[in-house]
Fold this protein.
Amino acid sequence: MGSRIACHFAGIGLQTLLLDMAPTALTEAETAKKLTLEHPAVRNRIVHDSLAAALKSNPSPVYTKEVASRIKTGNFTDNLKDIADCDWVIEVVVERLDIKQQLFTEVEKYRKPGTLITSNTSGIPIHLMAEGRSDDFKKHFCGTHFFNPPRYLRLLEIIPTPHTSPEVTDFLLHYGDLYLGKTTVLCKDTPAFIANRIGVFSIMAIFRLQEQLGLTIDEVESLAGPLIGRPKSAIFRTADVVGIDTLVKVAKGIAANCPDDEQKDVFTIPGWLDKMVANNWLGDKTGQGFFKKTKGKGGEKEILTLDLKTMEYGPRQRPKFASVEAAKAVDDLKTRLKMLAQGADKAGEFFRLFHCTLFSYVSLRIPEISDELYRIDDAMMAGFGWEIGVFESWDVLGVEAMVRKIKEAGFKVAPWVEEMLAAGIKTFYKVDSGKRLCYDVASKSYKPLPGGAAFLVMKNFEGQTVWKNSACHLYHLGDEVLGLEWNTKMGTIGEKCWKASSDRSVQRKKNTKDWSSPMTRKISAPAPMSD
């Protein structure tokens, strides 16, 4: 992970120093060459191997091969002093608090005052790592949790401590967004922060539903992937990619460190999952997990699925549910979600129960893990690849209707949600005058989403449509400015995008300044937008 983060920084043009441990023993090849532990090639072997493995990985962590030339390598013993020339030091060592604290003791010997120091930990409390450090260190210390692979996953969680300077926090949020190309999400220093807290809960909750409803792995994968706006890896495949041991470790950590979590039992590890860890069936890293690649009789590649009842692998199945088959024909995700939630079969029951437990859980995490609900949505979309966030999904299915279903299913709803509904506020998000607003729990009112003033989102002007056809949509953006959006495949511009049919014209809209003269001129070639 350290090598991949270094590649990402080098990819935006920064000179980067990558350090790792110096070896304590020679390899057989090094011994055969009669090298010693003091030989330069040996001392930097670990860091060189790590960087080489990252550069060979697929997908690649770099834009071009030349990016690697910006990365200088070294080891902690010989080169830690070189951080005196660095403006930002990121720690990405093993997830053990004692080792991180030992490293920070050494880092403080060489860093210059004002240098940013951050940790890429995925769950260790940030404030504990800064204990015993100087005031200047604490002021410039923060958590910066990159999601792997950092070049491709957009989420960067920023986790300040009570000692972190607000200017440092603001800088990291801004720099991560503008220069690193990340969705930066401000997190509280709570176990697993935001994305892993909600993401691992979702996975563990679906494990429970799978057992409760008697679903197979292949059935769950067909229900919890792109069908509901989630990645193709869905649930079990995601666990294989992340590493089943890692998933178990995070789940146990949340259970141990969140004693007041009303659904902490969801994080209890099922017996079959413990058995997989004992068998070293950890996913891609060991060659088998919930899925296993083999070769068929004809030598072709075949993927087998684990049967959790027999703990044996068998051919993948293509499950079919009536409600799913009907919903597949619907392209619009929000419309599809509504259809799926109405399903009368086992798939419909799965969707309803899953959303009930998830909506209940996220409502009760405010203000524990975040004061703002949009941050939870941002974290899940950027970190886990969800097409829409949890609260946005709740809006789609109806906040008030889902509150009733959540209670009927035996789950709790946070009091602030019921207070919101009692005040006549029926959605978490709304659009007003082309700006997207989000409900703010603290002020009990809507507030604009940060950054919304910097750009326009066409669909936020849906209520100010001037004209549209099957290929494009013309909006009035205010101040006599029109916005043209096309929705063709891959955004291609064809005849329908430029040519209005002769029997159509643009009529005057009540909320526009002056459209009294219909636009009847046919357009057969690109014309200036001012026309």
About this structure: Confidence is low (pLDDT under 50) at residues 500-531. DSSP finds 22 helices and 16 strands in the chain. The radius of gyration is 27 Å. The first helix runs from residue 2 to 11.
